[in-house]
Amino acid sequence: MGSLRLTERPHVRKARLWVKLSDGKEGWVRCDLCQRRCVIAPGKYGACGVRKNIGGELYTLVYGLLSASNIDPIEKKPLLHFYPGSTVLSISTVGCNFFCQFCQNFEISQSRLEKGLYGVYRTPEEVVRLALVYGADGITYTYNEPTIFFETVYDVAKEAKKHGLFNTMVTNGYMTPEAVDELGSLIDAATVDFKGGGDPEFYRKIMFVPDPEPIYEAILAMKDKGWWIEITNLVVPILGDKPEYVRRMARWIVENLGPEVPFHLLRFHPDYKLRHIPHTPVKTLEKLARIAMEEGLKHVYIGNVWGHPLEDTYCPKCGYKVVDREGFAIVEWRLTSDFRCPRCGYKLNFRGEYTPRNINYPMPVM
């Protein structure tokens, strides 16, 4: 297909956040969406595989082209302190700006253009209508990296706000401050997913990411915009489970975001190109959780280990279990309506309101 016909397709739209280069590279552009800031020649693609330079202008090739659409519990994101018990419509496209060798969604995240784009085209209005029909409280941009389908996120989030829905992202955090600024108040919450404790060597060798430091810059930009933030860290045995990096990360969170920001240590399971690496030992997760607590974090969770005591929320003051969870389900809710401990009156760090839910597991809607 020629480029002209490509641009006529509904899922191909002019991209946001890019500039034309004027330093002797006729027709070249620079994408300013993620921290890779790809310099792209005419006819070529960015690292994400879904943004193309067509005739000296940058286009997204996945606008509204959904690879998945499900109703999820918000705890699956995981967002445990933001509108607990609510449900969200989760959407994704294909492509990613990372190359994680362990990705559990590699079928969509690592789909580059040579393998072909795929998905079901939906307009922002259709996406929001789906959310409303299924009774969702908000929309989450997830499964693959939402930064690379930025235009879809922007337009759907804007439409969602008109109907009283909140918007959240599950992101690797490698977006530019300009991208965070552009989204502004359209996004209400973000789960920022670190891997391997933010170890630079792990990012370079296992994820092919030059440097994780820009993620911290993006998080501070999110904070400035008033986004609710929860931090996760995937603990990969042997390759990415060094205690010193978890300690460094926990200390940074306490100093820059506050001690009551939820911090999730996630258990790794073998997938994609790291099937030879074992599941994370629970004892390793518990050791790292103690380190995070030593650094002052008040809400440290262990994820992907159903039934573990650190799935639950405890009052930072008196230690009383105020939220009892099992997996994505809230088994018992003991906080008051304004998120206070019923025993000592301590006000916990939550946003939104608690909504009892009947749906505890993902439900496809496409």
Automatic annotation (TrEMBL):
Family annotation (PROSITE patterns): RADICAL_SAM
Record carries keyword Ribonucleoprotein: no
Cofactors required: [4Fe-4S] cluster
Domain Radical SAM core stretches: 81-308
UniProt xrefs under SUPFAM superfamilies: Radical SAM enzymes
Chain sites annotated for binding [4Fe-4S] cluster: C96, C100, C103
Cofactor notes: Binds 1 [4Fe-4S] cluster. The cluster is coordinated with 3 cysteines and an exchangeable S-adenosyl-L-methionine.
Pfam families in UniProt: Radical_SAM (PF04055)
Keywords tagged on the record: 4Fe-4S, Iron, Iron-sulfur, Metal-binding, S-adenosyl-L-methionine
GO MF term list: 4 iron, 4 sulfur cluster binding; catalytic activity; metal ion binding
Bilayer-spanning residue ranges: none
NCBIfam families associated with the record: AmmeMemoSam_rS
Record PANTHER family: PYRUVATE FORMATE-LYASE 1-ACTIVATING ENZYME, PYRUVATE FORMATE-LYASE-ACTIVATING ENZYME
Protein name: PflA homolog
